[in-house]
UniProtKB/TrEMBL annotation:
<dbReference type="InterPro" id="IPR002646">
    <property type="entry name" value="PolA_pol_head_dom"/>
</dbReference>
<keyword id="KW-0694">RNA-binding</keyword>
<dbReference type="InterPro" id="IPR032828">
    <property type="entry name" value="PolyA_RNA-bd"/>
</dbReference>
<dbReference type="InterPro" id="IPR050264">
    <property type="entry name" value="Bact_CCA-adding_enz_type3_sf"/>
</dbReference>
<dbReference type="GO" id="GO:0000049">
    <property type="term" value="F:tRNA binding"/>
</dbReference>
<dbReference type="Pfam" id="PF01743">
    <property type="entry name" value="PolyA_pol"/>
</dbReference>
<dbReference type="InterPro" id="IPR043519">
    <property type="entry name" value="NT_sf"/>
</dbReference>
<protein>
    <submittedName>
        <fullName>tRNA nucleotidyltransferase (CCA-adding enzyme)</fullName>
    </submittedName>
</protein>
<keyword id="KW-0479">Metal-binding</keyword>
<dbReference type="GO" id="GO:0046872">
    <property type="term" value="F:metal ion binding"/>
</dbReference>
<dbReference type="GO" id="GO:0000166">
    <property type="term" value="F:nucleotide binding"/>
</dbReference>
<feature type="domain" description="Poly A polymerase head">
    <location>
        <begin position="31"/>
        <end position="151"/>
    </location>
</feature>
<keyword id="KW-0819">tRNA processing</keyword>
<keyword id="KW-0548">Nucleotidyltransferase</keyword>
<dbReference type="GO" id="GO:0016779">
    <property type="term" value="F:nucleotidyltransferase activity"/>
</dbReference>
<keyword id="KW-0547">Nucleotide-binding</keyword>
<keyword id="KW-0808">Transferase</keyword>
Length: 455
């Protein structure tokens, strides 16, 4: 799309970034809104951030604005603070040689907006906008947005060799925006996917998480189709080749898992849980004489794999612990009876039980729809019983018992591990009969148990 045609399309720039552009223009510097904010505005999405590109060099930007932060002066970026908002203002630049597939060895500032746009990853992100001059679109980004296409700027392999993370970004943008990846760009991805082994675990983790949190997580299958998966999540590869010949299932393990991802709310813990919950199935698959597949104990293997994956991707310990506990218990069978539900909560942990119910629902919805009504009805009964238990304030953990360790010590019990064991045994009794959760009753039970112990 040429600039004349582009000038007819108008984008609303909020007052503060507009003020920054006008301040730069008033000093004789070119300045434009660029990148994702322009792309999102053209799609109809409200941008989270407004980035500005300018012919002014960093020191000139700093002189022009009172409050600035040196975000990345080497790469020409200054963060400008106006009122309570901040904007990144980056000098037009040309990137030098990329030797590590991550970042340029050096950058050179330029006065040319087109040269600056030519270094960007995809045409949809290589568009600039000025409130008076309109769109500057030298690489056909507007047309690609209208056609809903992700296309690399220039030679795709060169772009991916410069920064291999762009390979994952292409799939992530495809999922977030609902766009298809251009054929030549897809070929470039396949040819360079091995370069992802040079990218840090943290950067890969963040891109994969954004992909999973998108509205189109089924696009994750592109990672397998293009060879990316073997370099970022090889544990998932066997899932795409593992069928499930079982009455409860209609998809292979990978498609079932991705459907379950789509069926659950978009939080990192829940979506990573659904992605990893059946990774143990390829390793535990057996087929009986009737041709029915079984995956006995797959939850244990899946937990082991989930733990390894999340540690390699350097997730925080709390996320690792929560996801692994959900994976371990995702297939746990619970009867819709108050005692059974209380036992399950105590065993699994009250802190994740509601999350587990969401995991079970997403798992069931990704299976054979013929069994959906009955299985969801049963799950609904379990949820209702759990909510009633909570509303009644029934005891579900040792800290909710009507006595504690101090009470036992005051009654003559020895301090140490024995106290914890006694409290756990009392909890088992209370879970079976909530009416026992009375201080005197529990002390009497503890003393009786102590007297029965062999001396």
């Amino acid at each position: 799309m040429d600039n004349a045609a582009g000038s007819k399309l108008k984008i609303h720039i909020p007052p503060l970034p507009l003020r920054a552009i006008e301040a730069l223009n008033s000093e004789g510097f070119e300045a434009y809104a660029v990148g994702g904010c322009v792309r999102d505005s053209l799609i109809g999405i409200s941008p989270n951030d407004w980035d500005i590109a300018t012919g002014a060099e960093p020191e000139q930007v700093k002189k022009l604005f009172k409050r600035t932060v040196d975000t990345g002066l080497k790469h020409g970026t200054v963060t400008v603070l106006l009122d309570n908002e901040s904007f990144e203002i980056t000098t037009f630049r040309i990137d030098g040689e990329y030797r590590d597939n991550r970042k340029p060895e050096e950058v050179r500032f330029t006065r040319s907006l087109k040269e600056d746009l030519s270094r960007r990853d995809f045409t949809a992100n290589a568009i600039a906008y000025h409130p008076f001059h309109g769109l500057i679109d030298p690489f056909g980004g507007v047309s690609d947005i209208q056609k809903r296409i992700i296309r690399a700027v220039g030679n795709a392999e060169k772009r991916f060799n410069e920064d291999a993370l762009r390979i994952l970004r292409a799939v992530r943008f495809s999922a977030q925006l609902g766009f298809e990846i251009d054929k030549k760009t897809l070929e470039g991805i396949k040819a360079t996917s091995f370069l992802l082994s040079n990218i840090s675990s943290e950067r890969i983790r963040d891109e994969l998480t954004r992909l999973l949190l998108s509205n189109n997580p089924m696009k994750f299958s592109l990672l397998n189709d293009t060879g990316i998966l073997s370099h970022v999540l090889p544990e998932l590869e066997p899932c795409f080749a593992t069928d499930q010949r079982h009455p409860y299932h209609i998809y292979n393990v990978a498609l079932h898992s991705l459907t379950a991802v789509k069926n659950i709310e978009a939080t990192p813990v829940l979506r990573w849980t659904m992605l990893l919950h059946d990774t143990g199935k390829p390793h535990t698959k057996t087929t009986d004489k009737k041709g029915t597949d079984h995956f006995y104990g797959h939850h244990h293997k899946s937990t082991e794999i989930a733990n390894a994956v999340l540690k390699r991707l350097k997730f925080d310990n709390k996320t690792i612990d929560t996801v692994c506990r959900l994976v371990k218990n995702h297939d746990r069978q619970i009867e819709p009876q108050p005692t059974a539900v209380r036992r399950a909560v105590c065993s699994i942990g009250e802190d994740i039980f509601e999350l587990l119910l969401k995991v079970r629902a997403a798992d069931i919805k990704a299976q054979n729809p013929a069994f959906l009504p009955d299985r969801l009805e049963k799950l609904g009964k379990i949820r209702n019983i759990y909510m009633e238990i909570k509303a009644m304030g029934q005891c579900l953990s040792t800290r909710e018992l009507s006595i504690n360790g101090d009470d036992l010590i005051a009654s003559g019990f020895r301090q140490g591990k024995e106290i914890g064991g006694i409290l756990k045994n009392l909890l088992k009794e209370v879970v079976n009969n909530p009416e026992l959760n009375q201080r005197e009753t529990l002390l009497e039970m503890a003393l009786k148990a102590q007297r029965r112990k062999p001396r």
